[in-house]
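Hey, quick one: can you model this chain's 3D structure?
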Amino acid sequence: MKRADIVEFYARLAAADPHPETELAFRNPFTLVVAVALSAQATDVSVNKATAALFEDVDTPEKMVALGEEGLKHHIRTIGLYNAKAKNVIALSRMLIDEFGGEVPADRAALERLPGVGRKTANVVMNVAFGAETFAVDTHIFRVGNRTGLAPGKTPLAVELVLDRVTPQPFRLHAHHWLILHGRYICKARRPECWRCPVADLCAFRPKTPAPKSPAAKLMPAA
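Sure thing. Here's the predicted structure for all 223 residues.
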């Protein structure tokens, strides 16, 4: 995608949603780390339902360790892979206490050392909690980057590096949210809704998906 088209691409997404935010519910950097770690292979909606009561009482690493693995499982048992996730959350909480004074570090390399925290999770935390211009490439961004031609790449890291290189100011801070939301609600995996896409004319995807026919149109006789 040409630079002028990239600027226009982001400008249109920004016009449609000037202040995008994560759809995960959280209270502070620690609960954000937990929520993002729990969201792997799960929807934000399911994570929010599971953590609503949890985060009312448990919002620090110390409280999470006191809750314990079994107590945490009770809250998150509706989320996929909850056994492994509970183990990781308790372990990362202990590490935050032991090595970081109970505070979430504003450093991607340090975050990636935490159990259950990979590069994508670290990028989300860096962006949302600390305002870093990072690109957390999930399945939605990977698809959008490749499908549109904005940031083609064979791996999430490759797509991330292209996004970091081609995304200009003033769009860098919110870019990954715009792309995630675009992939989640418009540029869907099975059937992208090209007929209502604000950047369809800039996108390399062919053929564009036509609008679904209305029931009324199906009933109308041919001319």
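One thing worth noting: Confidence is low (pLDDT under 50) at residues 217-223.
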